[in-house]
Amino acid sequence: MNPAIDDTHDPALTSWVTSANAPASDFPIQNLPFGRFRPKGSQAPLRIGVAIGDQVLDLAAAGLIVTNDMNALMANSAQQRRQLRQAISAFLRAGSAGTKARACIVAQADIEMGLPCRIGDYTDFYTSIHHATTVGKQFRPENPLLPNYKWIPIGYHGRTSSIGVSGESFHRPNGQTKALDSKVPSVGPTRKLDYELEIGVFIGMPNERGEAVTMQEAESRVFGLVLFNDWSARDIQPWEYQPLGPFLSKNFASTVSPWMVTTEALAPFRSAFVRPSGDPEPLPYLDSPANREAGAFDIQLEVWLQTAKMRDSGHAGDRLVTSNFNDAYWTVAQMVAHHTVNGCNLQSGDLFGTGTLSGPRPEQAGSLLELSQGGEKSIKLSNGEMRTFLEDGDSVVLRGYCERTGARRIGFGECRATVLPTRATLTT
């Protein structure tokens, strides 16, 4: 039995919050994800809560924590996190004394969510070899993967000020582009706005500057995972990214889901990390027996698109793709180990993006850049509308969940945002 699995994962466990016992709930008692909330429409300080069914448990009001500083809570050791999980689980179990503390429970319909924590730094990785290969073929047909891809977790540093929480809207960005048949570039709204289906990884316990985190301890530094949409302007990107990588094509908006699903909750959904036959083995600092045995996460992912016309007619939107975090080429532990091998000090609340998580089949593409083959192939939606890239008024919803025989299904909620028109049209 996986030693990380304990009685908090028991699929037979139920809660006195009855909505948590519904089979389709993302937030049963086996999940217990963390987030920050306040009463809807208020300016009250954000409080730390745990999602349970369609409710939220206020941890401080329940006497389970003494601070509403999420980053301080995230910095605790793995053992302290497990102890808190045990205490929350015991409080919420059917028949427990927690049933008398219903004043600590708030309906999710009556609150608004903030960012899960204070995000200090943000690094975006490139962990899907399927995404890297498909996109690389559009630019380098004969050599889609650069020589370092199978040896090193590729990443770049992004910007935290433009990261928002699910439910937000953002404006279509302006930027500089250059058409192939033009001698000079121009500036204006992007015509190739895209989403990126990603997982976000939040760092918990920090490391000191100069300290490299080993593979054996890497996951003890991770607090939890979220859904992450790193919006991209595909016509701005190719003009600017040489030689230093993405810049304005990426930093205008990113969206995270509000609930951090802890690595403890994900213990029943671990999978072996296996490299394709013939690929090089990771260098020793990126390898460990535990990573080979269970370094991957079996998380089912979905992308939904709801156009403005769909929304006006009450249409919930179309599911465009499904994929799985299992298919990533690099694991969470490898991202942490590589990020710190040079002595970089990670801090509580730092965010890693996995990069677009595409599957091995074309219909599992995690971006419109891949689905539309760079804009060459139109996608027909169920109401007859066509898309190659996103239009104003479009809402994109990411969903994720874990299912496995012998375990209770758990989910991530949703990561939703809507595209607004650009604020100003600029001239060259």
Folded structure, characterized:
Helix content is 15%, strand content 26%. The chain has 428 residues and is α+β, with helices and mostly antiparallel strands. It has two domains: 7-113, SH3 type barrels, CATH 2.30.30.230; 122-420, Fumarylacetoacetate hydrolase, domain 2. The strands form seven sheets. Strands 6, 7, 8, 13, 14, 16, 17 and 22 form an eight-stranded mixed β-sheet that branches. The protein has a five-stranded antiparallel β-sheet with strand order 4-3-2-1-5, with no helix packed on it. It has a five-stranded mixed β-sheet with strand order 9-26-25-20-21. A hairpin with a 5-residue loop joins strand 23 and strand 24. The mean pLDDT is 95.
Q: Any descriptors?
A:
single chain, about 425 residues, alpha+beta, SH3 type barrels, Fumarylacetoacetate hydrolase, domain 2, 2 domains, 8-stranded mixed beta sheet, 5-stranded antiparallel beta sheet, 9 helices
